[in-house]
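re: the backbone from monday

yeah here it is again, tokenized this time
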């Protein structure tokens, strides 16, 4: 029978630690690669996209849908300018982008205006290139948003040019964003709006001094550069009503909105 000396056990211990460290590095590289090049999870903190997205929804965002810009990478490292393997967003896509004001804050909205489009709101009705967008009244809408006021209003089904259909919420008859000047979307930019039209800070608003046609808000969006778009929100993979966090597994049975899980976004 042989007995290992303490000195002979040290290399084996170091080898085991090395393998564990190597495995962790590989796992981190895989997660970082998936997050950067394939899909990134985002959670929804506000009701600006209700009823399409609710507070407590978690969505998968396709990072490859429009190609890659500096903002596809953690920290927005200026590795290159513009986009590589770029593809144009379609009108009606739900996208995540960096707020142009600071190029750091993530927003999620719907693409309403493409480069060259003329966008205007008149008495709560969206006009694109001088034509009123078709909308159909569906009925009343009410939702309880944890930690916020209840969302109540009228639900409309809106059909954008090109045929994309989605629901919007109109809470008030004459809100600040219901009547605007006409916006002309510059080349290389997009016009974003929230589906909860009266509770959304979007491209109808911009920080003071951005341009005379904008209504001003300190956190306003204005026109969104193509480079700032991070990806397309494709599906909800988890949703809870606010009474439980993502890791509070024991609360899931009563907190999860089961009907929203794996729901594709229109």
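seq for it, each position gets an aa:
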């Amino acid at each position: 029978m042989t007995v290992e000396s303490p000195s002979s056990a040290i290399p084996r211990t170091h080898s085991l630690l090395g393998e564990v460290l190597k495995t962790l590095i590989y796992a981190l590289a895989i997660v970082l690669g998936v997050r950067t090049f394939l899909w990134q999870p985002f959670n929804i903190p506000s009701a600006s996209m209700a009823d399409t997205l609710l507070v407590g929804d978690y969505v998968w965002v396709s990072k490859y849908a429009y190609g890659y810009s500096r903002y596809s990478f953690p920290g927005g490292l200026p590795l290159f300018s513009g986009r590589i393997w770029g593809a144009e967003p379609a009108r009606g896509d739900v996208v995540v982008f960096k707020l142009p004001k600071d190029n750091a804050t993530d927003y999620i909205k719907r693409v309403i205006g493409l480069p060259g489009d003329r966008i205007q709101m008149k008495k709560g009705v969206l006009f694109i290139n001088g034509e009123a967008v078709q909308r159909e009244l569906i009925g009343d809408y009410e939702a309880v948003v944890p930690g916020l006021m209840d969302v109540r209003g009228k639900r409309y089904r809106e059909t954008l040019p090109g045929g994309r259909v989605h629901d919007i919420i109109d809470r008030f008859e004459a809100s600040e964003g219901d009547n605007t000047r006409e916006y002309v979307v510059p080349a290389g930019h997009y016009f974003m709006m929230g589906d909860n039209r009266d509770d959304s800070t979007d491209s109808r608003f911009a920080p003071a001094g951005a341009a005379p046609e904008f209504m001003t808000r300190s956190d306003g969006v204005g026109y969104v550069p193509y480079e700032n778009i991070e990806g397309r929100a494709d599906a909800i993979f988890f949703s809870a009503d606010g009474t439980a966090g993502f890791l509070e597994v024991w609360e899931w049975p009563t907190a999860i909105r089961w009907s929203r899980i794996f729901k594709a976004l229109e």
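The helical segments are 6-37, 252-255. Residues 6-37 form the longest helix (32 residues).
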